[in-house]
Design brief:
The chain is of the alpha/beta class. The chain contains 17 helices and 22 strands. The chain folds into two domains: 5-238, Rossmann fold; 256-344 and 422-499, P-loop containing nucleotide triphosphate hydrolases (Rossmann fold, 3-Layer(aba) Sandwich), CATH 3.40.50.300. It is 32% helix and 25% strand. The chain is globular.
């Protein structure tokens, strides 16, 4: 037996939509197997079938050569299958050890949980797999990279020999991604089988042994990583040759449309997250903010957009001066659009329909209201056109936002914010969690807006995205702007040093 997983002829339908069609998928013991495809290609659906969350309409599954019926995650765990979801399932108010043992706690006698033994087991596992965590830390206080370690440890604690990771790098910094890949290699070396769902070609090439490619629910390729390249994978993903980067032309700039002066902000713990931050963005310009997560970028976005109002300093949007007393709505009326970095908590109302989500930001224009009521007929036509223009895969605009794949939800938010015709656009992680085709599409739309004179503030943890799109790059460290450069003047390595706080823009040690 040389395959620990065999999925044969798997078909899964949701109403009239076929998510997987006659899919064959295998994974070998001690391998990292990549599963890649465009958003909505059926990757997560296929793995949810393997994890027992969905039942296939057709096909069969063999685990370690044995035919099985995976009717629930509990059944999947029984066969040694664990899954780390894209959006974590941890209980924020509980400690690390409490989350890990939840559902299978070690007991002293009767119903008394042996927390000391549980904590010791967590420590031993974390050391064995190089997943260092504090077993007594509260999950809500942990950065996302450590929370992901907890999710992986939880799966290993439950006995997973086959580990599924769904878009595990979508919320990680470059440093955390490198650490994750070291962990995956360590797990592989210890005999674990890893199935890695991702849309990032470079990551797929760097860490996997084998690759399966899905396009519109159909397998279009089974490849050995060492015998392929990014161009071949991209072609199989989209069914045609596709470019992997955008071409940015020189663009004339106009008047200053966004200006911040002497911004200072303390978080709820009294930590100074913004320290005398000042900069400006002109019409027709993209200014990128680079930095390791947690150095003030999120707080900067919240202050400019009006979500955070307990700050010192001045924000000027399209010549209008805003004080802390001015909220989100006032700033948006002045021409500010905002693609939030977290599409689930800030970008969309998940239980609301696509039409309602679109209308939340696009209902005050001429003809959009019938006196005091929204013109829903006109809004529906506009929403459908807008979503189709941005190639969002959806059945009808009345479906809830949570029914979209992560990448399609992201595209719907980008579409809504660009539809407003902003004077100033904050684009925070605009391509997070989307495939190469959608990333290029979003990048092209951002450059289109730049060409039309929009002032764009781009905040991204993807240095390649910052380098590809920005006209100027500002680097944040410990809440301060510590350097300014351009893509022509610096390499990713130069900017990485700035991000680590080691050099300023002149190469001088800080």
């Amino acid at each position: 037996m040389d395959k620990c997983v065999q999925m044969i002829g798997i078909t899964k339908r949701f109403g009239d939509v076929t998510a997987n069609s006659q899919v064959n998928f295998t994974c070998s013991p001690g391998h990292i197997h990549g599963l890649i495809g465009e958003n909505g290609a059926g990757k997560t659906t296929l793995m949810k079938i393997l994890y027992g969350m969905y039942t296939p309409d057709e096909g069969e599954i063999h685990i370690n050569g044995e035919p099985v019926k995976l009717t629930s995650p509990k059944t999947a765990i029984k066969y040694g299958i664990g899954m780390v979801h894209q959006h974590f399932t941890l209980v924020p108010s509980l400690s690390v050890v409490q989350n890990i043992i939840l559902g299978r706690p070690p007991k002293k006698t009767g119903d008394v949980i042996d927390m000391k033994a549980a904590a010791q087991q967590v420590i031993q596992m974390s050391e064995a797999y190089n997943l260092k965590v504090d077993p007594y830390a509260i999950v809500d206080d942990l950065p996302v990279g450590i929370r992901q370690r907890v999710e992986i440890l939880k799966a290993l604690y439950l006995g997973a020999d086959i580990l599924i990771l769904d878009e595990p790098t979508a919320i990680l910094t470059p440093q955390e991604i490198n650490q994750l890949f070291l962990t995956l290699t360590e797990l592989k070396n210890k005999g674990k089988s890893i199935i890695l769902i991702t849309h990032k070609l470079a990551e797929m090439m760097s860490v996997t042994d084998d690759i399966t490619i899905l396009c519109n629910g159909i397998v279009t390729g089974h490849l050995q990583t060492e015998k392929t390249n990014e161009e071949e994978i991209a072609r199989m993903m989209v069914g045609k040759d596709t470019k992997l980067t955008v071409t940015k032309q020189d663009n004339p700039t106009g008047q200053v449309k966004l200006k911040v002066e002497n911004l200072n902000y303390y978080n709820k713990f009294g930590v100074k997250m913004l320290n005398d931050v000042s900069f400006e963005v002109k019409a027709g310009e993209i200014v990128g903010i680079a930095g390791v997560q947690g150095n003030g970028q999120t707080e900067l976005i919240d202050v400019i957009s009006g979500f955070e109002r307990d700050y010192e300093g001045t924000v000027v949007i399209n010549d209008a001066v805003f004080s802390p007393s001015n909220g989100v709505a006032q700033r948006r009326r002045q021409g500010l659009s905002h693609i939030p970095e977290d599409r689930q908590t800030r970008g969309a109302a998940l239980d609301a329909s696509l039409l309602q989500n679109y209308t939340m930001s696009n209902f005050e224009g001429e003809g959009e209201k019938k006196k005091y009521f929204i013109n829903w007929g006109k809004q529906k036509k506009r929403a459908e056109r807008c979503l189709n223009d941005f190639k969002v895969k959806f059945d009808k605009v009345e479906i809830p936002a949570y029914s979209l794949s992560g990448g399609n939800l992201q595209k719907s938010i980008v579409a809504r914010e660009m539809e407003m015709g902003p004077k100033v656009l904050i684009a925070a992680q605009p391509s997070r969690g989307v495939d190469i085709g959608a990333t290029i599409f979003i990048h092209e739309r951002l450059l289109d807006r730049r060409g039309e004179g929009t002032a764009i503030l781009l905040v991204s943890y993807e240095l390649s995205e910052i380098m590809s799109l920005s006209d100027r790059i500002l680097v944040m460290y410990n809440g301060r702007i510590i350097g300014e450069t351009t893509p022509k003047e610096s390499t990713e390595e130069d900017i990485g040093l700035l991000m680590a706080g080691l050099h300023n823009s002149k190469g001088e040690v800080q």
